[in-house]
Amino acid sequence: MKYAYKLQTIWTKDIKLNSFCFHKMVSLTQIILTALFVRLSAAIPAATGDDPTCGPGLGRCDPGECCSQYGYCDVTPAHCGVGCQPAFGVCKNTPTSTSRPKPSPTPKKLPESPDSTCGQAAGYRCAQGDCCSQYNFCGNTAAHCGAGCQSAFGTCKSPTRSSSKGGPTPAPTSSFPIPDPKLSAPVITTCKSPKQFALTFDDGPTSNVSAILDMLKDNNVKATFFVNGNNFADLTVEPYISILRRAHTEGHQIASHTLTHPDMTKLNAAQMWDEMSQNDVLIRNIIGKSPIYMRPPFGNVNALVLSAMATWGYQVVTWNIDSADWEHNGSPNMIAENDASYAEGMAGHPIPATPFISLQHDFVDNEIGWARHVITRFKKLGYNFVTVGECLGVPASQWYR
């Protein structure tokens, strides 16, 4: 009994001692964690401004501010020192005061763009003074420097420069070849030889093109695709990248239809240059070269368009037979209605002596059925299907640059 009592006493004291130690350990842990929390809190700044966050997916700090390793903007040593993110703000080790330093130029960690592309996906920044547009192209126009401009990869402001009189005047756009008014590109509407039929598709590559390519392959026909970089499809993303690459690999001709499908007659020369050069970049990124042949949207041209295209080395191609398929899109009688539109282009011309460059749009519903019908019908009439380059007698090596 004595032993039992002593054991109980020892056990009770032990529990009390362990309990005391446990509470001491918990208290010590709390002190350590609290100290760490205070230390970390000091490194993470309080919110300043409307949106103090920065970094990938969050944007860039205001001019002169540093983006800390924790994704916050300010000018303290905690922001501008160890872990500072130079792609999203200023970075220097010892800010001299809490006042904001002078704005710094665009960060130069990324290489300067060699091909006018910019942004996170491209991995390039624009040249000094150029803006990176929402579509990831460098330039100096309002379209580049205005809404959607990406400040992390270039300048973002309405470009101005001082005139000799001291007043602000619009800054020149990005350097481009000025159209020579003495030059004018001829508008090509037909092939050179009888019995030739150039089947062409505009406005893609849409999701219909994969099935169209299958059908063309089954019928041993090569076509020409006049493509937009940012219209029905976006040539910076899949599946459109792979679709265009496949079309080129299978021997179809790739030609330009501008970047966004504007009416070229309503653009100035700088805007035309942006439409053509930026579309060229997207196409070249996919197939390794850019097209020489182009089709103006809606077939609209004027003296400036033709002068610009000639100066910049493009061949302008329209058509002499139009399916008007976009007007008949969704109609249960689309094929018959398209045939009627074709009949207008064929009227009064000897068949098959008259060659044709046709107009179709690959975004149209049942475009596969219509194209198959055209191939069957015109083969029976004695026509051979060719690309635009072939129908003009130009070897494939000269379709691109």
Automatic annotation (TrEMBL):
Keywords: Carbohydrate metabolism, Chitin-binding, Disulfide bond, Hydrolase, Metal-binding, Signal. InterPro entries: Chitin-bd_1 (IPR001002), Endochitinase-like_sf (IPR036861), Glyco_hydro/deAcase_b/a-brl (IPR011330), NODB_dom (IPR002509). GO terms for molecular function: chitin binding; hydrolase activity, acting on carbon-nitrogen (but not peptide) bonds; metal ion binding. Transmembrane segments: none annotated. Residues 94-115, 160-180 are annotated as: Disordered. Its cofactor is Co(2+). GO terms for biological process: carbohydrate metabolic process. This is NodB homology domain-containing protein. It comes from Batrachochytrium dendrobatidis (strain JEL423). PANTHER family: CHITIN DEACETYLASE, CHITIN DEACETYLASE-RELATED. Residues 51-93, 115-158 form the Chitin-binding type-1 domain. Residues 195-386 form the NodB homology domain. Residues 160-176 have a biased composition (Polar residues). Disulfide bonds join 61-73, 66-80, 126-138, 131-145.
